[in-house]
Design a protein that fits this description.
Elements lengths: L1 H49 L16 H7 L3 E7 L5 E5 L23 E2 L11 E5 L18 H6 L2 E5 L4 E13 L16 H10 L2 E2 L1 H10 L3 E7 L4 E11 L7
Parallel strand pairs: 4-8
Antiparallel strand pairs: 1-2, 1-5, 3-4, 5-6, 6-7, 6-9, 8-9
């Protein structure tokens, strides 16, 4: 009798263990599928938006889509950012706070990937001496995931350009430095301190950069060119930073 009870209990325990294993496998499979759906949706959205990517004018002649078309989708679009050699090629949005576009896309639909967005303490025109753009770090190089590439010295040395187009101006971007900072850093994450003069940011960058283009930093100092900072999550409370100099592109106008 006692052995029969033990045999039944052992059978029940084995069945429970098997059931738990099946549940874990199903959950793992669902998580992988769900993550892939997120990346697929980000890729699809990017491909869709690329059809609206504004271009700088050439000799006052329109050469492609205009900002009017993009801002018809969402008037919060303030710029378009492209970093050469990466998958970073997205519209930039600006809300009146720094939380909304953490979880909403350009269509104002809920999205775990969020959007790339200009810090709410910066001017909508991206015309301050120091401008800060935030974005989620995602695998497969989505959103600001490819900022990790700049943490490789060879890539950093060989890929140092990009572009930023606003409704008023087209800028060439030249990478100054890659840094690793804490999320509470009171230089990088305090754009309101450097709206008119960002010399202190260059001093800080020179002292703390992981990799640095010294000639570009020197040029930024002498020219007084505005700065663009790209920020995303790294490990724990750390943040990956790519700092760029903004130079008005030849022609200097956007559509």
């Amino acid at each position: 009798m006692y052995r029969d009870v033990l045999r039944i209990l052992n059978g029940l325990l084995s069945a429970v263990e098997a059931l738990l294993l099946i549940v874990c496998l199903l959950y793992a499979g669902y998580s992988l599928w769900d993550n892939q759906q997120i990346y697929t949706s980000v890729s699809s959205l990017q491909n869709e938006l690329l059809a609206f990517k504004p271009t700088a004018t050439e000799n006052d002649e329109e050469t492609g889509p205009s900002f009017e078309e993009l801002q018809a989708i969402n008037p919060d679009v303030c710029a378009w950012l492209t970093m050469d050699g990466t998958r970073i090629d997205y519209p930039i949005l600006r809300a009146n706070n720094n939380t909304y576009y953490l979880s909403y896309d350009v269509y104002r639909k809920f999205s775990l990937a969020g959007s790339l967005f200009l810090d709410s303490r910066n001017a909508f025109t991206v015309s301050d001496a120091y401008n800060l753009i935030h974005g989620h770090h995602m695998n497969q190089g989505r959103m600001f995931g490819d900022l990790d590439l700049y943490k490789r010295e060879e890539f950093f040395r060989e890929n140092a350009t990009g572009s930023l187009i606003t409704p008023e101006t087209a800028y060439q971007l030249d990478v100054i430095a890659c840094l690793n900072v804490n999320s509470t850093d009171d230089v990088i994450f305090a754009p309101q301190r450097w709206l008119e003069d960002a010399e202190a940011v260059l001093d800080y960058t020179e002292r703390n950069a992981t990799y640095l283009h010294a000639d570009t930093l020197a040029l930024a100092r002498t020219s007084g060119a505005p700065l663009l900072c790209l920020a995303t999550c790294a490990d724990g409370s750390n943040r990956t930073i790519v700092l760029c100099m903004m130079t008005r592109a030849e022609g200097g106008a956007a559509q």
